[in-house]
Amino acid sequence: MTTVDFHFNTPDRLLHACRLIRKAVRSGQVSETKPLLVFCSQPERLARFDDMLYEFSEEDFLPHVMADHPMADESPILLCPEPIVPGAARHAFLLVNLDDEVPECFSSFDRVFEIVGPEDDDKTQARKRFSFYRDRGYAIQQFDLSKTQR
Description:
Blueprint (H helix, E strand, L loop, with lengths): L2 E6 L4 H14 L9 E4 L3 H13 L8 E3 L10 E4 L13 E4 L13 E5 L4 H16 L3 E6 L6
Parallel strand pairs: 1-6, 1-7, 2-4, 2-5, 3-4, 5-6
């Protein structure tokens, strides 16, 4: 069954997602055969995140493309404006949800990351997503980033 990790009290939701993805790539959890999917139905937010993946670290290159790109079958990181699941040959184990809603495809993944920023609207939407997962019996882990940041 899918497990859900809520990372909350992060000062910058998109920057935290970049760091989380870098960690997954470095640890070998993400590769060309095990892609990570980033979902966000909001084009502006997804475009901003796309740019951030290129710019946030001088030491790390995080290869990524939009899910409908011709190189999508070879990229370890897929950016998706619609809830999809990669083909069986490339089972995506990890889903980073940058959307305000729970994506329909979430249960096809082993693990879902929900990242919650400091804005009241973001917290309100996150509470709805948290309730959705909890009410359906999904295992939820919570990480309060205010306790780990300097």
